[in-house]
Structures are given as C-alpha cells and as structure tokens.
Amino acid sequence: MFEYELHRMNHAQLVREAAAERLSHEAAESAGAARGLRRLGRRSAGQDAEGRVSDGSRGRFVRAA
After folding, report:
1. What is the H or E stretch that residue 34 is in?
2. How confident is the prediction along the chain (65 residues), in pLDDT tens digits per residue?
C-alpha cells in the first residue's frame, strides 16, 4: 500500500510539472506572436489598412456590358 501511495504522489507531481511546462510554452508562443504583430504593425504604420492601389490598373480589365 505504501508503494502505491508513493506512485500516486509521483504521478501527481509529474502531472503538475507537465502542466507548468505546457503553460510556460504557451506563454512564450503568445509573447512571440504578440512581438510579431507589433513588428508587423510597425512595418505597415505608414500605409492604409487596405493597402496600396496602383493607378496603372485601368487597362487590365475590359468594360462590363
């Protein structure tokens, strides 16, 4: 019975450690994603959200009937 209790305590400890490691990995991934979004925002700060439209696109399409 004593070995069983030791096994249960060890198992519970391993589950706690795995959960803590998973949480730290998720936090690192979300921090990396936020950093990437900030970097993307800095790159496109001078442009409109929709992007540029060139004026030379008039000749590409035929007129609709």
Report:
1. helix 2-43
2. 899 999 999 999 999 999 999 999 988 888 877 777 777 666 555 555 566 666 665 666 677 76
Residue 34 backbone dihedrals phi, psi, to 5 degrees: -65, -40
Closest residue by Cα to residue 36 from 47, 44, 24: 44
Instruction: Report CA-CA distances (Å) from 14 to 2, 7, 19.
Output: 18, 11, 9
* Amino acid sitting at position 39: R
Matching residue, tokens 């994603």: 33
Give backbone dihedrals phi and psi of 29, rounded to 5 degrees, phi first.
-65, -40
CA torsion, ordered 21, 22, 23, 27, to nearest 10 deg: 100
